[in-house]
Write a structure and sequence with these properties.
It contains 13 helices and 15 strands. With about 350 residues, the chain is α/β, with parallel strands linked by helices. It has 2 domains: about 5-175 and about 235-345, LarA, N-terminal domain (Rossmann fold), CATH 3.40.50; about 185-235, 2-Layer Sandwich (Alpha-Beta Plaits), CATH 3.30.70. The strands form 5 sheets. A 7-stranded mixed β-sheet has the order 3-2-6-13-14-1-15, sandwiched between helices. Strands 4-5 form a two-stranded antiparallel ribbon. The protein has a two-stranded antiparallel ribbon with strand order 7-8. α1 packs across α2, α7 (about 170-175) runs antiparallel to α10 and α10 packs parallel to α13 (about 330-335). The chain is globular and about 65 Å long. The protein starts with a strand and ends with a strand. Bound molecules: iron/sulfur cluster (SF4) (2 copies). One iron/sulfur cluster (SF4) binds near residues 221 and 222.
Amino acid sequence: MSNKVYFLSWDRRGELYSFLKATGAFDHVKARNFLAIKIHFGEDGNEGYIKPEHVFPVVKIVKEKTAYPFLTDASTIYVGKRSDAYHHLLIANKHGFSIEKCGCPIVIADGIRGNAERKIEVNLKYFESVYIANEICNADSFIFMSHFKGHEITGFGGALKNIGMGCGSKAGKYAMHHSSKPLVRQELCRGCGICLKNCYQKALYLVNKKIVMDKWKCTGCGQCMVSCALKVFKLNWNEDSVTVQEKMVEYAVGVLKNKNGIYINFLNHISKYCDCFSLAKNTPLMYDVGIIAGVDPVAVDQASYDIVNKAFGKNFFKDIYPEIDPTIQLSYAEKLGLGGRNYILIEY
Ligand code: SF4
Ligand code: SF4
């Protein structure tokens, strides 16, 4: 696996097609292969997702190789417009991911209810087997188009998160999040009820205007933490973030087992929170930097992390999440053989 990582500055994003061709990353794409382009179609009101005009050049190159590209994502476990395939397709359509604009169709990877999955054996620290969305398993190879930004549990979200968390079925996502159940500091609660609307599991309720959590129902998705302005919900960051990052990487091992991938990270609209929020919370905190591509997901994420920090002038992720060490995902992925943290950066 090549550790070369290619960089295109954001002001030259109009040259994405020729940039990607120049990387040589598409050389492994084989004729008549079903190639899954894993992407996030954005939540309602969210602006951080990768736009259809940036998908089109990627699809164009794949089609030149006479392969069969399709756009895909799997259902979420939190409340929103992507928690089943029906609504997922509607929001994708609303955000412009049409065949006309992207050049290929969408196939939601885990079916109408998010339970079309396959069990893949990995035999690792947390999981003997992982539960991956069915059509991800059916794909011959992958392109992961990932929006690189902050993340409330893993510190940052990039290629590794798009692979591991993004390709898990609902059962898989529950298994990854299971350890990240927030502590409830009831004394801070004012009883406004906002968090209740964001809890997909209906694990929260009010008693005498104070929030109560049903720990048996909670999946640790983290939506309540972001929705409560009074910081009633709190993670044990050291333990929970590390565990979720490592679990996510073990899922990535299952997804990539015996398969090739191309990884394209978009370092724009860099927000504190992930793209699952439809709130105004995902406003960008720094300028748009560029696009990174390569065939090593660890090198691509490491380079993205380094370039964002350099552009910010100090460690951006430490600034927004002092409690989280987001490099755990990089070191664990390297340890499990998904790629390497050392890379050669080539500017286009
Ligand atoms: S959002 Fe916060 S303050 Fe409002 S009910 Fe939930 S925990 Fe209480
Ligand atoms: S209580 Fe919070 S972390 Fe648990 S399922 Fe509900 S929103 Fe997610």
